[in-house]
Write a structure and sequence with these properties.
The chain has 239 residues and is α/β, with parallel strands linked by helices. The chain is 23% helix and 17% strand. The chain has six helices and ten strands; from the N terminus they run βββαββαβαβαββαβα. The protein has helices at 30-40, 86-98, 111-117, 140-146, 190-203, 217-220; strands at residues 2-3, 11-13, 16-17, 53-54, 70-73, 103-108, 127-132, 152-157, 174-178, 207-211. Helix 4 (140-146) links the parallel strand 7 (127-132) and strand 8. It is globular, with a radius of gyration of 17 Å. The two termini are 19 Å apart.
C-alpha cells in the first residue's frame, strides 16, 4: 500500500503497472513520468519502466491491510488495458471481494473493453468503477460505463481539456473535475468547470473539484468561485 496525495482517495495498489497512450488525456501522463523515475531509482516493480507489467506478488496485499482504506486500483496503469488477461482481472476482483472492509476505486480510459468484460466479472459492493472523460471526443465512455453493475459509477474529467456539454448523467453517481498539472500542462478554463458543476447540480450528481493544475498546482489550488467542492458519492457514508 502507498499513501496517496490524490485528493479523492487514500491509498494506491498496483497489481499492474505501465500503459500505452490512447487519447488526448494521455499526452503528459504523470504515471509514465513517475515510472521512469522509479525505474532509474532501481525500484524492482518498475524494472520495465512504463511497459505494461503484471505483479502477481502484490495481488493479495490488500488482505493484509487491516485498517479500512479507500484504495485507487492501478494508479500506475489501466486495469482494462487490452494486454491484461481476463483471468488476471478476475483475480484482482476476487481479492477486492475478499477484502470487503476496503473501498476500491478503478478508473479506465478503455471503456469499450470495460463494457465487454463487465458481465463476466463479479461486482462486489465495495468496488467503484470510473471512466476518464477529458474532452467531448471521450464522452462516449459515459455510455459504456452507464450499465456497468458497480455500486458507484463515476467520471474523472481530468485533465479537462475542453468544454463537455450536455452530458447524460443517468446512472452516474459522482463527477470529479481537474486541470492538468506538471510539466507542459495544458490550460483549463473556468467556464468549462462551471458548466460541468451546473450539469451535476441539475442531475443531482455529487461534484468534486480536484484542482486547477498548472506547473505549480499547490499555488493554483482548488477553490472554485471561492469555495471547495468535495462531494462524495452518497453511498460512501456506508464505508
Amino acid at each position: 500500500m502507498a499513501n496517496s496525495k490524490i485528493e479523492w482517495t487514500e491509498s494506491t495498489w498496483n497489481p499492474v503497472t505501465g500503459c500505452t497512450k490512447i487519447s488526448a488525456g494521455c499526452k503528459n501522463c504523470y504515471a509514465e513520468r513517475m515510472a521512469k523515475r522509479l525505474c532509474a531509482m532501481g525500484q524492482a516493480n518498475y524494472a520495465n519502466g512504463f511497459e505494461l507489467t503484471m505483479h502477481p506478488h502484490v495481488l493479495e496485499y490488500p488482505l493484509g491491510w487491516k485498517k479500512p482504506q479507500v484504495i485507487f486500483v492501478n494508479s500506475m496503469s489501466d486495469l482494462f488495458h487490452e494486454d491484461v488477461p481476463l483471468d488476471y482481472i478476475r483475480q484482482i476482483f476476487d481479492v477486492m471481494t475478499r477484502a470487503n472492509w476496503h473501498t476500491f476505486q478503478i478508473l479506465t480510459k478503455r471503456s469499450e473493453r470495460l463494457a465487454e468484460l463487465a458481465p463476466l466479472l463479479n461486482w462486489p459492493e465495495n468496488v467503484w468503477m470510473g471512466v476518464t472523460v477529458e474532452n467531448t471526443d471521450c464522452a462516449y465512455r459515459i455510455d459504456d460505463l452507464r450499465d456497468v453493475p458497480s455500486a458507484v459509477r463515476f467520471l474523472s474529467m481530468e485533465p479537462l481539456l475542453s468544454a463537455v456539454e450536455d452530458m447524460n448523467l443517468d446512472n452516474i453517481d459522482w463527477v470529479i473535475v481537474g486541470g492538468e498539472s506538471g510539466p507542459g500542462s495544458r490550460p483549463i478554463e473556468k467556464q468549462w468547470v462551471r458548466n460541468i458543476r451546473k450539469q451535476c447540480k441539475n442531475a443531482d450528481v455529487p461534484f468534486f473539484f480536484k484542482q486547477w493544475g498548472g506547473v505549480n498546482k499547490k499555488k493554483t489550488g482548488r477553490l472554485l468561485d471561492g469555495r471547495i467542492y468535495d462531494a462524495m458519492p452518497r453511498m460512501a457514508a456506508a464505508y
